[in-house]
Amino acid sequence: MSSSRSAIINKAVDLSREMLARAREKNWEALQQRQAERDALLQRGLAEPIPAELQALASASIAAVKAIDMDILKIIETNKKDVQNSLSKLQSGKKAADFYRQS
Which of 12, 27, 63, 102 could cross-link to 22 by cystine, CB 3.0-4.6 Å? Predict the structure, then answer.
């Protein structure tokens, strides 16, 4: 169980790094997708108390994720208008797809 938990925690950090790369590329849709994946992993990985042997890894990983998130937020803030436009287009596309599915 602890090896799967450590894999989940490590994957969450990897996804955070991918999120930062997508933010640097200004690929907001991919950033949002990676964030959803990461958030689901973190919920699974941190849903139960962390065993003693994983506490150091979990603590370091959470610190890394928080630091990466701060970098991402700086990029998003700098590109706020672009992010808003991209997310608006994404939401419009989803609404159109939903409409066509219902027809």
Answer: 27
Alpha-carbon gap, residue 86 to 26, rounded angstroms:
10
In tens, the pLDDT along 54-82 reads 999 999 999 999 999 999 999 999 988 87
Per-residue confidence band for 13, with pLDDT thresholds at 50, 70 and 90: very high
Q: Is 61 exposed, middle or buried (0-12, 13-18, 19+ CB in 10 A)?
A: buried
Are 73 and 16 within 8 A, CB to CB?
A: no
With beta carbons less than 8 A apart as the criterion, state whether 23 and 72 touch.
Answer: yes
Rounded-to-10 torsion of CA 80, 21, 39, 44: -170
